[in-house]
Design a protein that fits this description.
The protein is mostly helical. It is 71% helix and 3% strand.
């Protein structure tokens, strides 16, 4: 077998394992399994999903690491209470937001964003190098292109916020990119719908970018805070109106 063939098989195996992970993760967060319907045995799942024991065990291992499952030898596997789930895991947050849409959960995470992103913008204004500033400007140009229908409004908006996190020069902030990405995919759709628009305000994002480019730490923080407070207000409106759908 050639190296390329082995690589393709390995990639196929990883994709299949991740597919099993996704299916089981969604089933757990949407309540398919729970007290009334316990998590199936390994043999049942292998048969149902057409997976080998090794693939299934790997998926269960990953779900256990995310706090969704607990397994003990000779005692079986069971669903952990939601309070034990790792909500800061991008997969878990995405499953909860996309498959079990909850404005209340989105509001809680937006409150966390309010504590993170204005400070990130301030740090970016202080520490961003030319490459990082160029990445922010490139994301902003993508947002401008999206206004003309030449780029995707959602991914360009996400790219902007991720670029700001990475421009901080802080490894901890940079590692928040995946979870911010996961939350924004739901948040942006909801807030734009609430505003009655398809696109985010490029002008408001431009203020953040300009302040970072000018090294204006306070201005960058204020501009980013404005963006997130506006989003939080719209999400609060959805919560108050009991909006549970997209």
């Amino acid at each position: 077998m050639s190296g390329n063939e082995r690589g393709l098989r390995a990639e196929s195996g990883r994709n299949f394992t991740y597919g099993i992970l996704q299916q089981l993760g969604v089933d757990i967060v949407t309540g398919t399994y729970g007290h009334a319907n316990p998590f199936p045995t390994e043999a049942e799942l292998c048969k149902r999903l057409g997976a080998s024991r090794s693939v299934l065990r790997e998926a269960v291992k990953m779900l256990t690491a995310k706090g969704l499952l607990k397994a003990r030898p000779r005692q079986g596997t069971w669903i952990e209470p939601e309070r034990n789930w790792n909500l800061l895991d991008p997969d878990v947050l995405r499953w909860l937001l996309e498959r079990k849409f909850s404005p209340s959960l989105l509001l809680e995470f937006t409150q966390v964003r309010l504590a993170i992103e204005p400070v990130a913008a301030s740090l970016a204004a202080r520490h961003a190098d030319d490459k990082a500033k160029a990445a922010i400007q490139a994301a902003l140009r993508r947002m401008q292109a999206a206004e003309l229908g030449d780029d995707d409004p959602l991914t360009s908006d996400i790219a902007f916020h991720v670029a700001v996190l990475e421009a901080t020069g802080n490894r901890f902030y940079a590692q928040l990119r995946d979870i911010i990405d996961a939350a924004l995919r739901t948040s942006i759709r909801l807030t734009n719908r609430r505003k009655g628009v398809r696109l985010a305000s490029v002008a408001d994002h431009q203020k953040v970018a300009d302040a970072i480019a000018a090294g204006d730490a306070d201005g960058a923080a204020i501009a980013m805070r404005h963006l997130i407070v506006e989003a939080m207000t719209l999400i609060e409106s959805a919560v108050n109106k009991g909006d549970e759908g997209e």
